[in-house]
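User: I need a structural model of M23ase beta-sheet core domain-containing protein from Capillimicrobium parvum for a docking pre-check later this week. Nothing fancy, just the predicted structure tokens so I can convert them on my end. Input:
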Amino acid sequence: MSGRHSCAAAPARADYTGNGAVIRIAPGTYAIYAHLQPGTVRVRRGQRVSAGTVLGQVGNSGNITAPHLHFGIHDGPFLATSASLPWVFDRYRLDGRGPLGEDGSVALAGTPRTERRTYPMNLSSLTLAG
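Assistant: Understood. Predicted structure tokens for M23ase beta-sheet core domain-containing protein:
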């Protein structure tokens, strides 16, 4: 995310996304961050944010079994009623891929590597530069 964007904290809803934040990047384009830790969302409706702004902490809110971040770029501000739009990260470290085990553990497979201008696949574990 580059530049400054309008930000709105996601409405408190008893649904599968839990706590979150929604950033309006452009008309009809929203970055949605879901499953943030309760009480850690640091942005408020209408606040302007820029790259590097801390929105909250990854948590275990909503309909999930282990802490993780659900992120996407959508054509509307609500995950359940909007369509996902294509996007890529400029750069990230792909730590590996692996499913969540019944005990909550994740056994990552693959060799860690830096990825550029790609979209991480499902079940990927990433490290993003701050």
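Before docking, keep this in mind: The chain has a mean pLDDT of 82.
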